[in-house]
Amino acid sequence: MLQKSHHLKREANLIGGEWVAAGSGKTIEVTNPANGEVIGTIPDAGVEETRRAIAIAHETFQTWRKTTADERARLLRKLHDAFMDNQDALAELMTLEQGKPLAEARAEIAQSAAQILWFSEEARRVYGDVIPSPWGDRRIMVTKEPVGVVGAITPWNFPSSMLSRKIGPALAAGCTVVVKPAVQTPYSALAWGVLAEEIGIPKGVINIVTGDAKAIGGELTGNPLVRKITFTGSTPVGKLLIKQSADTVKKLSMELGGNAPFLVFDDCDLDRAVTGAIAAKYRNAGQTCVCTNRFYVQSGIYDAFVEKFAQESRKLKVGSGFDQGVQQGPLIDDKALAKVEELVGDARDKGAKIVTGGKRHELGGTFYEPTVIADATQEMRFAKEEIFGPVAPVFRFDKEEDAIRLANDTEFGLACYFYTQDLGRAFRVSEGLKYGMVGINEGIITTEVAPFGGVKESGMGREGSKYGLDEYLDVKYVCIGGLGL
Ligand SMILES: NC(=O)c1ccc[n+]([C@@H]2O[C@H](COP(=O)([O-])OP(=O)(O)OC[C@H]3O[C@@H](n4cnc5c(N)ncnc54)[C@H](O)[C@@H]3O)[C@@H](O)[C@H]2O)c1
Ligand SMILES: O=C[C@H](O)CS(=O)(=O)O
């Protein structure tokens, strides 16, 4: 099964540089979503292992924080190189546990490496200030210092790149980390520990604990030695972690749920809009936080868009992520499949027209046909609920202001997209949309150089870019007197 990645696969937790089992000896099975086969086990760890990891991370922080920015930058650069040297092996491990096509897994490893490279550079640019003092006998300085031990909790849909946006800035800032990956996709995260060891990142800087999410999360959010929680996942869990972190007033970064609108105006380049729609809808089988959840198409181009979008959707090759040319893999599990079927059934019951797809794929398991649904209305559940699957509801609108109002009619505000060739409309609509990220005539906008994050109930803080590092730094004001000036 594993041709290239066996040396990267660890069925243990990494605590203080030691690969260990759960104290109870309990394990959790990990399965391949493409066929349900068990591909291995991981420790079913809990409070005790997490507490030990936090204590070691705190102890390690006392020395790691004193390394120079240059030393940390060089280690991150070596980690970047290790990721790229092992790109195929890491991608194989990811496709095995997550199901995405190998090409998408390779792209995710490249994006993970790009994040690490970015923060290897940002590490050396943590500038402070010297501020003109209002007192003649005193001087004023501002410095930035690492927050300390970071608790990082990540989702299954991008098991490596979501981690890179946390470990990259955390290590660049001089923090240490305790990671809890999703139990569905632990091996991509544990491979970080293997590579960190290989390139010489000191023991205790990166610690990885797998198992009981509530127990591990409860310790990470409740333990006063943890000074920051960075979470990527659903909004309900994010809200819970925010509440649990309140008692010890932790610094928080929350990358939460989305409900992305995709607006198509009459004046758009139709071919470009359909290409963008395919990319923004079906990546990772629609299981991304920035996937389009709602297509709003202006009346004048509605029929042409639906016809071409459905035609292109039918061409997508569905299958195992390891099969040559596959463009859409399985959904992560039966629960995800059931949710998609519920939302499609609800729409059908409320009068929607299934233009293509609308049912399980003939491959069986958790494979689902790429689906385009016309005549969607705001009364249908997927107008408000994150689909997280390869289903594209297409709503109709007439006026520009209606499109903006409908697009904003959600508690989420992560990513949005629209297609127009009118420059004035581009500015009016971009400024009218309440979202953290906007794609204009583009369906894929993620990059390490730009701030990734949302507003409203899609989260707080930003990852990547020059903004991402501040999330791991505390600002310190120093007033110096007694200088005899
Ligand atoms: N904003 C972003 O950048 C981004 C990126 C990827 C996914 N997401 C969102 O994540 C969701 C899908 O991912 P998911 O199903 O893994 O989300 P999830 O919230 O169920 O799980 C995310 C992580 O939280 C852990 N977790 C669950 N309950 C917990 C608890 N009580 N305490 C501590 N940890 C807990 C899980 O084990 C997992 O590691 C979607 O809503 C998607 O939009 C957002
Ligand atoms: O699922 C959310 C990811 O952040 C998607 S992306 O790869 O960053 O665009």
Automatic annotation (TrEMBL):
GO molecular function terms listed in the Swiss-Prot or TrEMBL record: succinate-semialdehyde dehydrogenase (NAD+) activity
CDD domains, per database record: ALDH_F5_SSADH_GabD (cd07103)
GO BP annotations listed: gamma-aminobutyric acid catabolic process
Pfam families according to UniProt: Aldedh (PF00171)
Domain of life where this protein originates: Bacteria
UniProt domain Aldehyde dehydrogenase: residue ranges: 19-478
Active-site positions on this chain: 255
InterPro entries: Ald_DH/histidinol_DH, Ald_DH_C, Ald_DH_CS_CYS, Ald_DH_CS_GLU, Ald_DH_N, Aldehyde_DH_dom, Aldehyde_DH_Superfamily, Succ_semiAld_DH
Protein name: Succinate semialdehyde dehydrogenase
Record organism: Faunimonas pinastri
